[in-house]
Amino acid sequence: MSDDQEDLALDLRAGLPDPLRALVKEFPRDGWEQHPEFQGLISFWLDRHLMFRRLCEAMIQDAQTTLDGGMEPRQMAGRLSRYGSALVNDLHGHHQIEDGHYFPRLTTLDARMAHGFDLLERDHAQMDGLIAGFVDAANTVLAGADAAGGATDRVGAFHAHLGDFSGLLERHLFDEEEIVVPVILKYGANGL
Question: Is the dihedral of CA 133, 149, 142, 52 positive or negative?
Answer without folding.
Answer: negative
